[in-house]
Amino acid sequence: MPSLLITVLKRLGWALVVLIGLSMLIFSLMRIIPGDPARLALGPSAPEEVVERYRERMHYNEPLPVQYYYWLTDMLQGDLGVSTVTKRGVLQDLREFLPATLELAIWAGIPPIFFALLLGVLGAMYKNRWPDYLIRFCSYVIIATPTFVWAVLFLLTFGYWVPILPSIGGRLSMGFEVPPVTGLMVFDALIAGQPAAAWDAFTHLLLPALALSLGHTMQEARLTRSYMLENEGKDYITMMTSQGVPREVINRKYLLKPSIIPTVSIMGLDIAAIFGNAFLVETIFNWPGMSRYAMSAILGKDINAVCGVVLVLGVIFISTNVLVDMVVMILDPRMRQSRAK
User: Rounded CA gap, 166 and 158, in Å?
Assistant: First the structure.
């Protein structure tokens, strides 16, 4: 499939340009924010001469382009600097915190893939009947409610009023110990042959992942329903219906496939929203992930940590969208041919 390969290579080239631009933007923003990063790193009681030596060591007295050059050179060598909040290497911090956020985002991304399509198809099949009305009403309520409200509601409901699920307390209950392999707790527990630990890790993920995914699921269900109804009125569907093609075949083969292409494209964009909303959800559920680490870094003007987190999120977002583009091109040959030109 040479056209697909050409498009992926083009996307990767653009991704590199975007990442360089993103690094320049976030680096400049963090440098021009009011506040002395050296004083913030060493504390208000540090002697001035010590602070000055720290500025020279971190090149804070150099012009901004020179500072960026030093930072980019170190970054290309795998050194993202030292976090002034945790006093450890940023790379070490990311290795510790990123898997928790990644696992949360993966589980939060599963419901939109399955339930959004299912609800969208049901809404289109039962148009203007009670299942359609019920789905539309629920989608209005869920989309209009911010993610953090669902997180607080789940926390109160299942953490205090009906405490049947773990709500606060990390990724695993006490008594379980899973050797880290990938950092994804459920997967690591299964690899280690500990199904009980895997189930326990899953129950810890359930509430924050559900809070993150609800709005996206219902939004994508509405999109699927709308595009199915739009495509249902097109001439080729009418022609196949008049030729006696079974309705089930039309829906599955000729109506659903073109209708889910816009939904799949939106799913790629929603990945960024999931990571963005994870900032609040991780804080509410005391989830030991990267978003909470980033929040502490932003409040403490930890330049190296913020730049590292933003770069990692940029790589995840771009990789996801390249993957989504590949899926869309597989689903729609016209797009594959047009993007290869």
Answer: 8
* Residue type present at position 255: L
Helices H / strands E in the chain, number of each: 16, 0
DSSP state of 46: S
pLDDT in tens, 181-233: 888 889 999 999 999 999 999 999 999 999 999 988 998 899 999 988 888 88
Q: How far is CA 255 from the centre of its chain?
A: 29
pTM score, whole prediction: 0.82
Alpha carbon distance 261, 265 (integer Å): 6
| Residue whose pair of structure tokens reads 């939004």 in the numeric block | 219
Cα distances from 38 to residues 19, 85, 87, 274, 310, in angstroms, run 27, 12, 13, 33, 21
DSSP state of 89: B
d(CA 275, CA 281): 10
Q: Within its chain, how far is the Cα of 218 from the centroid?
A: 17
User: What sign does the dihedral 334-336-338-341 (CA atoms) show?
Assistant: negative
d(CA 300, CA 124): 50
41, 83 contact by CB (below 8 A): no
pLDDT, tens digit (0-9, with 9 covering 90-100), for 103-135: 998 899 888 888 888 899 899 888 889 999 999
